[in-house]
């Protein structure tokens, strides 16, 4: 049984990335989707099929082993991680991968908070527009502990 995966942030990039993950990620359980505006997640989930839409960000995290995010900016990342870390969700062993474009200092700060709470963190900015993502040609730049980066590798090449 492979890891349970959740994706947070279904903007133009998140939609393209989750379409690839859903089609080519060899997921062994339904992909969980979370978006601030839930109707977007509902519509995208219905479009992809065989997905779970989480009501809350905490629910998305609770039911997943890998939580991938692609949010608008630093403030969005801060708000989402604040609400995860403030909630009583046990994140021990869970891997967070963030593909939002934010300053390295903020990625480091978020990584520190996640790791202190028992989780793992990979910062993974992506280069390329949504059309490039749709063509499976995004350049992904993962950084973090080698064992954490290894956990996301199966979802990069060919996906
Ligand atoms: N588009 C590109 O060409 C491109 C290329 C490389 C990297 N990126 C980076 O990828 C990230 C996403 O880009 P995108 O093009 O997908 O942006 P987008 O279409 O504008 O989508 C932004 C996403 O962030 C969510 N969001 C915004 N503020 C939030 C908050 N305070 N709390 C929770 N969620 C929030 C939005 O949710 P709602 O639906 O509720 O608004 C939406 O899901 C950005 O960091 C961008 O710099 C984009």
UniProtKB/TrEMBL annotation:
InterPro entries, A to Z: 6PGDH_NADP-bd (IPR006115), HIBADH-related_NP60_sf (IPR051265), NAD(P)-bd_dom_sf (IPR036291)
Pfam families xrefs: NAD_binding_2 (PF03446)
Sample GO molecular function, one term: NADP binding
Recorded superkingdom: Eukaryota
Annotated 6-phosphogluconate dehydrogenase NADP-binding domain residues: 5-157
Listed name of the protein: NAD(P)-binding protein
Organism in which the protein naturally occurs: Aspergillus saccharolyticus JOP 1030-1
């Amino acid at each position: 049984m492979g890891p349970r995966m959740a994706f947070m942030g279904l903007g133009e990039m998140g939609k393209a990335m989750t379409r690839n993950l859903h089609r080519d990620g060899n997921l062994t359980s339904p992909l969980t989707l979370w978006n601030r505006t839930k109707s977007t997640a509902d519509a995208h989930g219905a479009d992809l099929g065989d997905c779970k839409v989480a009501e809350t960000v905490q629910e998305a995290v609770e039911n997943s082993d890998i939580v991938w995010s692609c949010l608008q900016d630093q403030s969005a990342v801060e708000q989402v991680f604040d609400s995860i870390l403030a909630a009583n969700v046990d994140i021990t062993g869970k891997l967070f991968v963030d593909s939002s474009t934010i300053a390295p200092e903020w990625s480091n700060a978020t990584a520190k908070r996640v790791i202190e709470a028992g989780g793992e963190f990979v910062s993974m900015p992506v280069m390329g527009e949504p059309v490039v993502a749709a063509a499976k040609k995004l350049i992904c730049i993962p950084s973090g502990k080698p064992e954490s980066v290894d956990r996301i590798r199966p979802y990069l090449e060919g996906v």
